[in-house]
Amino acid sequence: MNAEKFPKIRPVTLADREMTVAFFDQMGGESRSFFNRADGNRNAMLNCFDTPNLNRRNFIAVETMPDGTERIAGLVFLWALNTKTPWLGIAVAEDWKGKHLGRELIAYAREYCLQHEKCGIFLTTHMANLRGQGLYTRCGFQHLGTEKSGELLFFMPFADKAPTEDGTI
Where is 34: in which H helix or E strand? Predict the structure, then answer.
């Protein structure tokens, strides 16, 4: 797949607050229910603009519109970066769904984790998020089970970074 057709992915900057608000505002009902219940992820993203969180990294895919303005086509974030297995969150703009931007965002997060010597990535998703589950499986995540919250737990191991039998990395 030609990555040039995707918007450029880059770290979020302080200047991206307005675009971030607009991104969450454009979410449809399915995205809100699976990704932003009770505005949890929206608030976590916006809090990072006010109080930088050194244990979290936020990245956005920025699309340039025909009028020259920019907007967020997708976002991916990692938290628990002080561990060998951070957690991932991902969302794609409604009009970018089905165009493989999610795969590109996950690949970007994976590369970031590999560069920072992580051994894998965790994520959870709602059991009704079949589209997300398919994406995660295609990208190399393995379904591990169900959390106490009822969310499905997925893990993407990095084969060359796996812990040894004694637990060292």
Answer: helix 29-35
Mean pLDDT value across the chain: 90
- Supply the pLDDT for residue 2: 44
In the chain, where the domains are located:
3-117
The CA–CA distances, whole Å, from 159 to 71, 139, 162 equal 35, 14, 5
Separation CA 16–CA 62 (nearest Å):
10
pLDDT tens digits, 31-46: 888 888 889 999 999 9
Partnered with residue 78 across adjacent β-strands are 57, 88
CA distance 116 to 135: 24
**Pairing mode, strands 8-11 and 56-64:** antiparallel
Q: Is 144 left (phi over 0), alpha (psi -120 to 50) or beta?
A: alpha
Q: Give CATH superfamily name and number for 3-117.
A: Gcn5-related N-acetyltransferase (GNAT) (3.40.630.30)
Residues 84-134: tens digit of each pLDDT:
999 999 999 999 999 999 999 999 999 999 999 999 999 999 999 999 999
